[in-house]
């Protein structure tokens, strides 16, 4: 037999827990299905979150989960195998990998994204330590160090290259596969960013990052490296629910996270690659308020419909 909830939230990161807290405090029956490691699990600390700067990501989630549970929210350590509209009804059926079935009046998907990294030896093993992607998240921690940036096809790479001199006067852009125009080079020169041409063969790692080895055998010492991963939303559940996606593969949502499917919301990195932890938490809050309002409106209209 399935269990009925006002809202089932898929994903127990900052967005999902923030939404669950708001909904539980609104006296809604809420379940949070939290399976898998958070995207920021490799990082030792998170930054830029007012009052939580420097906190380990796992500690934030543990604290948030305890708060949700304190208001009666249910935390389920499981995976969602499928989600769909209940046959002939407006409710949703959420099937868990364990075999348990949940029924929900509304669904919020907060499953985040995954970072697909360049295939270079040494890169993945240092990911989240001294191989980084966000200057605002990690730039201060590697300030004044010799910093490298891996060139590539992502247009964000040039922007990051122009940002990094705010944290260090020793920044090298390893061109790798990146095409640079004369204008690009002029901007990099104006910011004091050196360009090293040639493909990168591997990162030199000896406990920590030591440098970059090029395909021609040259070695350049570096103690921190920034890369631009490919952001891929964990959107299988949204696809199974029939939500619309844009041409770049991201779910289409309104400012509250409402998708094209009535009753389904999305929040956090699953719908926005740029959402830092504090932004994802805010998105979860906004979605929760919208979901509660939608349920209230439905209840207010029921007597009219019956009449």
TrEMBL record:
The keyword Oxidoreductase applies. Keywords: Flavoprotein, Oxidoreductase. It catalyses: [thioredoxin]-dithiol + NADP(+) = [thioredoxin]-disulfide + NADPH + H(+). The keyword Cytoplasm does not apply. Signal peptide: none annotated. It holds the Pfam family Pyr_redox_2. Residues 5-284 form the FAD/NAD(P)-binding domain. PANTHER family: THIOREDOXIN REDUCTASE 1-RELATED-RELATED. This is NAD(P)/FAD-dependent oxidoreductase. It comes from Nocardia iowensis.
């Amino acid at each position: 037999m399935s269990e009925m909830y006002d809202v089932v939230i898929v994903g127990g990161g900052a967005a999902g827990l923030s939404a669950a807290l708001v909904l539980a405090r609104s006296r809604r029956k809420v379940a949070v299905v939290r399976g898998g490691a958070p995207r920021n699990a490799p990082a030792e600390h998170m930054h830029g979150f007012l009052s939580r700067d420097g906190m380990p990501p796992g500690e934030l989630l543990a604290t948030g989960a305890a708060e949700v549970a304190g208001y009666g929210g249910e935390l389920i350590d499981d995976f969602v195998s499928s989600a769909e509209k209940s046959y002939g009804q407006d409710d949703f059926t959420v099937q868990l990998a364990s075999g348990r079935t949940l029924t929900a009046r509304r669904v919020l998907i907060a499953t985040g994204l995954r970072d697909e990294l360049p295939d270079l030896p040494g890169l993945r093993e240092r990911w989240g330590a001294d191989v980084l992607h966000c200057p605002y998240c990690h730039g201060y921690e590697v300030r004044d160090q010799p910093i490298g940036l891996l060139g590539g096809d992502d247009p964000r790479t040039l922007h990051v290259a122009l940002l990094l001199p705010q944290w260090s006067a020793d920044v090298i852009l390893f061109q790798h596969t990146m095409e640079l125009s004369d204008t690009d080079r002029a901007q990099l020169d104006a910011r004091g960013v050196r360009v090293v041409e040639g493909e990168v063969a591997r990162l030199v790692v000896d406990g920590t990052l030591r440098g970059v080895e090029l395909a021609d055998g040259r070695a350049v010492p570096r103690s921190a490296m920034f890369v631009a991963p490919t952001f891929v939303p964990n959107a299988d559940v949204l696809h199974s629910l029939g939500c619309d996606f844009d041409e770049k593969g991201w779910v289409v949502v309104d400012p509250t996270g409402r998708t094209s499917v009535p009753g389904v919301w999305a929040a956090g990195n699953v719908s926005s690659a740029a959402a830092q932890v504090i932004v994802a938490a805010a998105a979860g809050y906004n979605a929760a308020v919208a979901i509660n309002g939608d349920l209230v409106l439905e209840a207010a209209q029921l007597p009219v419909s019956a009449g």
